[in-house]
Amino acid sequence: MLYHIFKGGKMFWSKSYIPTEKEMPADAIIASHRLLLKGGFIRQELSGAYTYLPLGLKTLAKIMSIVREEMDSTGALELLAPSLASKEIWQATGRWDDFGDDMFRFKDRKGRDLCLAPTHEEIITNLAKRDFRSYRDLPKSLYQLQNKFRDEPRPRSGVLRMRQFIMKDSYSFDRDEKGLETSYNLHKKAYKNIFTRCGLSFRIVSASTGLMGGSDSEEFMIPSESGEDRIVYCSNCSYSANLEVAVSSVGKISYPSKPLEKVNTPVGGSVSEVSSFLGYTQDRMMKSLLWIIDDKPFFLLLCGEDELSETKLQKHLGTGRPAHSDEILKITGAPAGYVGPIGIEDVAVFADKRLEGATGLSTGANEFHHHYINVDIGRDFMIEDFLDLREVRKGQKCVNCSGNLFVENAIEVGHIFKLGKKYSESIGANFTDELGEDKPFVMGSYGIGIERIMASAIEQNHDENGIIWPVSISPFEVVILPLNSSNENVREVSLSVCETLAASSIDFLLDDRDERAGIKFKDADLIGIPLRITVGEKNAVKGMIEIKRRDTSFVETIPLEKTLEIVKHHINELYGLCSVN
RNA sequence: CGGGGCGUAGCGCAGCCCGGUAGCGCGCUUGGUUCGGGACCAAGAAGCCGGAGGUUCAAAUCCUCUCGCCCCGACCA
Q1: Residue A370 carries which DSSP code?
Q2: A46 CA to B48 C1', in Å?
Q3: To the nearest whole number, what is the mean pLDDT of chain A?
Q4: CATH class entry, domain A476-576
């Protein structure tokens, strides 16, 4: 009521809905989750589903507006498809089954099978099938900002892994691979712009295509301890990849070649226990894993210091599982830890490429407390094939330049795919070329997790006091704190500041609550508005105000007349920090 | 799906082992003093102790079953 001159009340704290908490919410672990809850941006509704309160929604709206600007500038066209989808359209591509329990399914009142769309390739491709008939209609890129639904086995980390979330997804339709290349690169450039403008530091890594299929894909990753993915990058060159697909180069394993010998190893069967008993380094141990794939047993051999990459295994041999202890005993005659491929018939053996030509190793002898030593690959047992099966580890060498590889956690905020004809062919989405022939569209698919941008920005920009928003996605650019609204000078000066900022379309929030200064300062820090203007009694009398930067804590006291000039200076500088150029 | 933890006032928690009819801090309401970094005093309001069943004279507390939430792992554009 103090500043009734401004209509709508959008910028008045007292009239808004910003339920900040004094104590840290118990269930939240990671910074973004804690601060979004504590700052009154979000409230949980269900496991994996949140309500976005005014501050949260405003942040998301700013992110989505950046996304729209960049997508539009590539020539992509926005549309909005339904979340409801029929079983039939998903069966055409086989994904009604492939998605499994991750898809929310139900029946309508007539008993028809429906789902909540976890993604929209099928639906959008079906549109293209209907409406894009000629090569003259191409290329086209369609995008939407949409709620997606996935019944995640374990929603977690606040808004990082949800069951309902907002995704910007786009789909490109081209007449050939060359066109796809262009569409793909347009998206890649737009994505770089989007994440830069959102104030994020990111890496682009090559990735696994997973359920989407297609030939190539790249992920946009935000390095963060809270990330669920791990990425590998070279310290020397531009090589970077998701750990799931990353490769490395390692030296040959070569120890003196001697006659095979069985030795007693009366210790636990782990690589570290046996190697230290034998006085071997761990790379001299050959790890023999017994897996069951399609009901058949396989030996998978790795260097003792390496771990199996299940993603790579799946790509080569299909989905499998480690053998249970009773199966191990039945097949090898020994318990886990003492097994190996030597002397075992009828079990296919695949080895990691690192073991190619390796000599002088030790592995299990299929007898409790016994191992072979002086094992030579290729001499003592047969190998079906050498495959890339190991997970890259920090310190290994880059395959391109021999630089050192590093591994770090990261949040996946974007993923771009070259799909090719997978969807167009199975759905029968064709166009007619100049020769009058029907051809399937060559497609790409491109996703961005909107809430993940919000969370990543916080993970990368916060301190013990709260969020430090990049100005481009902050719910407000400026927060104004009149410290004592009952004081005439404070009111007049604050009002004047509001009028000045409003006239220049600067996005501000006025903390007009009847609260003590300490509470206002704490809350302003918590919700992370980049620029704070404080109007205190002593300064107000002199016609002065105080400006403070949230990021650097830089403070200056300036005369009221210079408000616009100084505010604009700081805001420009802040936008400069997340500017494309 | 395996392992662990938690559901008690709006929020954060204690009480549970050893049953006896519910408590602390913050917040909220009213009054007063304060007023530039989460003030102080006084007086209040507020909880079918997640749900169902059982044991008992008596259950927040013991037993069984359920539902929900979080964390680790598995899984996952």
Answers
A1: E
A2: 24
A3: 92
A4: alpha beta
Q: Is the CB of A216 less than 7 A from some atom of nucleic acid strand B?
A: no
Q: Which of residues 238-297 of A touch strand B (CB under 7 A)?
A: none
**Whole-number Å distance between alpha carbons of A453 and A5:** 35
Fold of A31-246+407-458: BirA Bifunctional Protein; domain 2 (3.30.930)
Q: A144 near A79, Cβ under 8 Å?
A: yes
The tens digit of pLDDT for each residue in A472-531 reads 999 999 999 999 888 999 999 999 999 999 999 999 999 999 999 999 999 999 999 999
Chain A residues 384 to 413 with C-beta below 7 Å from nucleic strand B: 412
- β-pairing, A77-78 vs A140-149, is parallel
Task: Determine if strand B comes within 7 Å of the CB of A525.
Answer: yes
Q: Tell me which amino acid residue A440 is.
A: P
pLDDT of A4 strictly over 60: no
CATH of the domain spanning A261-387: 3.90.960.10
Residue A431's alpha-carbon distances to A66, A125, A138, A143, in angstroms, are 33, 12, 9, 20
Q: What angle do CA A195, A196, A197 make, to 5 degrees?
A: 90
Vertex A275, ends A269 and A280: CA angle to 5°?
Answer: 160
Between residues A321 and A108, the one the model is more confident about: A108
ipTM of the complex: 0.95
pLDDT at A37 over 50: yes
Rounded-to-5 percentages of helix, strand, coil across chain A:
30, 30, 40
Q: How confident is the model at residue A9 (pLDDT cuts 50, 70, 90)?
A: low
Helix (H, G, I), strand (E, B) or coil at A348: strand
Residues A383, A350 contacting (CB under 8 angstroms): yes
